[in-house]
Amino acid sequence: MKGAHRLSWPRPSLLLLLLAMLVLLPVYAAPSRLAPGISYAYLFVIDVSQSMNVRDQAVDASRGAALVSRLEAAKLAVDSGLRGLPCGSRASVALFADDETLVLFEPLEICAHYPAMQRVVADISWRMAWAGNSRIDTGIVSAMTEAASRSLKLVFFTDGDQAPYREQVRLNELQAHRGATRGLIVGVGGEQERPIPKLGVHDEIIGWWQPQDAARNGFNPNMAIVMDGFEPAARGTDTASQGPHEHLSALRSEPLQQFAQAAELNYLRLGRNDAYTRALADPHLANFDVAPRDLRMIFGLIAASLMLLAWVLPDRP
Question: In angstroms, rounded to a whole number, what is the distance separating the alpha carbons of residues 17 and 310?
């Protein structure tokens, strides 16, 4: 009939865009399903001894960011590692001080528990250390034992600085546990010796460790109160200045490499390159098993394909 309007269908491109939006809706529910594939299982161990408070790490030098502490750099590396692992991977986090590794929580699946794990890592502090000394070889053995008991690989962050100072490294205990688990020792710190800071309530620098502090208590600050009651002549200040510079700290790569070789672990230095990321994704450290797999990527690819099709498909006149 004259003057009647014909119904017109929406343009194909508009329909495709609407369909792409519908396909993206399930993404917000974080869909997953059990499926075989590659996954990883790591125990991340962070050295919380006071030498890790030395601020000699450039996390984002490209933006001129200020130097951060070794501890902060290690925490950022753990968080980066957690975010980079595929769904289905499991991880746990532990602290190292004195000669012991303390596991903070049992292994959890990455994707389901990442926010909680991220918060735990962010709250790690040097104040959590239960002793002032640092026997790294024994700490690595403890970490390997904890990791092996949970079927985890090991990622151990430390600057390699031991206190009290040892002229010769001890490898017997590590060799006895050789191959107990695989993984990495990650060296954190600069090559130049720097003074170890004393921190205040808000982690501000209020002073620096002195040679006599190291000499009189083996770099154990808990003994300083006892030594303050001694006469100055008994403090051994002169002999302290002639001994090892335990009040100064740098990355001790050589002993860490020896520890790694003795325990059949790999060693790498934490830096701005992607060696650390590649090491975590090493196929030799991976597991092939059935685990929850994230399906969001599949929905995203379908939506992207529909949007591309809407862009190239000509509309009807």
Answer: 7
